[in-house]
C-alpha cells in the first residue's frame, strides 16, 4: 500500500509555470503534489505584470481548465507592429504583422499575471483528489536514489516520488540538487514594466519600437489600456522609475511619438535587469526542469512564458505515455527524451532573442545595415513575413496534445491506448 506522502510527481514552485505544470501532469491520472508558498492575496494583487500568450499556450490553459476564468481580464493580440527608432543609417520601414496573413484570427492574448495565477489556483483547488496543494515555506532538502526521490519541507515533512519537477525559477534548488550546470550572462540593460491608459485605441495591435538602447513595446490590455516593457540602460531605467508619474507619462508620450495619444493612470513601475541563462540539460537524476528553472531570456519577442508552457505540455505528454506503458516516470531514458524534445526550441529562441537585441544595440554600421535590410525584406516579401510569423509563434511540427484542441487531443490519446 502506498504511503500518503508518496506521489507519482511533485512540482516545486507555484507561479504560473508550476501551477500549469501540476494541472497538466495531473490530467493523466497521476498522483501529483504541488509545493506552494502560503497564498498571499495582497502580494498577488500588487503584481501588474502581463504575459503575451500565443494560441498554443491559450489552448493549454483551456485544456487544463484555466482559460475561461482569466479571459475576461485579457486582451486579444490581432497584429504586431515594428517601428524603427534607432536612428540608423538605413532606416527600416514600419512593418505590421497581421494574424490573418497566416490564417489566424489573432496571435493570442495579453494576460495579466494576477488573473492568470488566480485562474490556475482556482483550477488546482477544484481538480480533485489527484492533485494535492501543499503550502510550505519551501523545500529544504532533495535526495535522489536509484528508485525514488525524496523532498523534505521546511516544516519537517518528507515526501517521496518518482519524479520532481522544478518550476522554482532561476535560482532553482531543484536544478542544484540535480547537478545541472548553467551558462549565463547579463546585459548592460534593464527593463521597466508598467501599465497605463491612453486616449487613442490600440485596436489590438502590439507595437515594438526598435531603439538603440533596446526595444520598447506596448501590448494591448482591455479597453484603452496597455502594458509596457521599456528596455534601457540600467541607470536610465531606474531614473525613469523614480521620476513623478506626470513626468514619466510625458516622457513616454514623447517616445511613443503620439501613437496612443494622451496617457494617464500609470500603474506601479518595476525595473529588472536583463539576463540570459540556459541549463546544460532539462532533466537529470529524477528531476525535470520547466520554465525559468531551465532557461531565462530577456522579455523580447514574448518568448518567456510561451516557452515555459511548451516545456510543460511536452513533459506532460511524455509522462502520459510513460504511465500507459508502465514505465518509471523518473528514469534516465524519460528525462533524456524530454531534454531532446525541448533542447532545439529553447536554444534556437535564445539565440534569436540575443541576435535581435545585439542588432539593435550594436554600433557597427554593417550590423545596422543588415538589420535594416532584413526589415525591408520582411516588408516586401509576404512569404518570408508569413514564415517568420509562424516560426515566432511555435516550432515546426505538431504541438504536444495539450496544446491541441480537445477533439484532436483526445483522438491522439485514444490511439495510443489502442496500440499499447
UniProtKB/TrEMBL annotation:
Q: Where is the FAD-binding domain?
A: 7-343
GO biological process, alphabetically ordered:
ubiquinone biosynthetic process
Key words of the record: FAD, Flavoprotein, Monooxygenase, Oxidoreductase, Ubiquinone
UniProt xrefs under InterPro entries? FAD-bd, FAD/NAD-bd_sf, UbiH/COQ6, UbiH/COQ6_monooxygenase
Alphabetically, the GO molecular function entries are: FAD binding; monooxygenase activity; oxidoreductase activity, acting on paired donors, with incorporation or reduction of molecular oxygen
Answer yes or no on keyword Oxidoreductase: yes
User: Disordered: where is this region?
Assistant: 395-420
Keyword flag ATP-binding: no
**Pathway participation:** Cofactor biosynthesis; ubiquinone biosynthesis
Q: Which cofactor does it need?
A: FAD
Q: Which family does it belong to?
A: Belongs to the UbiH/COQ6 family.
Q: What is this protein called?
A: Ubiquinone biosynthesis protein UbiH
Species this chain originates from: Candidatus Filomicrobium marinum
